[in-house]
Amino acid sequence: MMDRADRFSKKIIETPPSGIRRFFDLVSGSKDIISLGVGEPDFATPWCIREEAFYHLEQGHTSYTSNWGLLELREEISKYLFEKYSLSYSPEDEILITIGVSEAVDLILRSILNPGDELIVAEPCYVSYQPLVAFADAKVVPLDTGKTGMVPRASEIEKLITPNTKALMICTPSNPTGRVVPRDELERIAELAKKHNLWVISDEVYSELVYDGREHCSIGSLPGMKDYTIVLNGFSKAFAMTGWRIGYICCSKELMHQVVKLHQYTTICAPIFSQYAAAEGLRVGRGEVEKMRVSYQQRRNLMMKGFADMGLPVTEPEGAFYIFPDIRGTGLSSEDFATELIKRHKVAVVPGNVFGAGGEGFVRCCYATEIGLLKEALKRMSLFIGELKK
Fold this sequence. Notes:
Elements: H1 10-14, H2 19-27, E1 34-35, H3 47-58, H4 71-85, E2 95-98, H5 100-112, E3 118-123, H6 129-135, E4 139-144, H7 154-160, E5 165-171, H8 183-196, E6 199-203, E7 229-234, E8 247-250, H9 253-266, H10 272-284, H11 286-310, E9 322-323, H12 334-345, E10 347-348, E11 350-351, E12 363-366, H13 371-389
Helix pairs in contact: 3-10, 4-10, 5-6, 5-9, 7-8, 11-13
């Protein structure tokens, strides 16, 4: 067959596949492997949300929506943000419904970045950020948070700012560490953004999943920050709606009118029945979210004790449903640790290096899994650690 590599995009050829999906593919179809890999709730979507989708499908509501998304859903999001953060976004032209938060990240990066622009990203970070910045012909400037407790600090961010810096990317609670950026640090980051006229892209998809009485702070709610902030959020994690693919962007109408053009030409709109279901989730489903949050907190506690018993250092996750143990003491790289663990004891975790160079020496474990399986996974991992010490 003729070699047609020259017919493909060089940028795509040079982009490695997602490290998370690679381990997901290893697990797929294997019944005896316990997966702590993919970040997906083990709960089914709450019934009240599913029933709303059934109703609209039965009514034949299967058309396109506005490019902006259902006004009904945008109004519910606007109410939610005002009630939770006193943040005021117009449902008409400051909120856009996307196909998951992944599309939201892509749209925003391609809407604000020009070739040569720099985006400061706190590492370890979600695997999609860096490739999507590259697709926008811009440059990621990594901020290694390993020496600051896996939390970005304004003092460290300022050292990386250059005339080419366009924006900062913050995810709190963090994927993969579960760390939450405290309000006082967000205030310092906000002052930095205003001083240097920078966008702050705030990925808040885990905002409902915080523990031990903490409250999530949206940086856009801080004084003078709304015009500098781009809020990204969605329903996949908190509402157990990963397959429904509903996310959203909140930003100034001036920026949004640019973002929506890209959305028009790429995806048109999110599925209508998913949008109706998400609106119902905001109206009546938040009690179900709280039940899931409590369960995740219990599982977090179980994982913390398990890793302590193994002698693996770990910083306590304050949100999301991930834990990021330090495996440097084993002498293995993140890749080798994850590969050997799945081979020897059939437990799948994600090597920390896929989240950027700052993740090397760690592995990500998702504890959105049934308690019995978590206990068995910890038992198998403990055996593995014991073998490595011999």
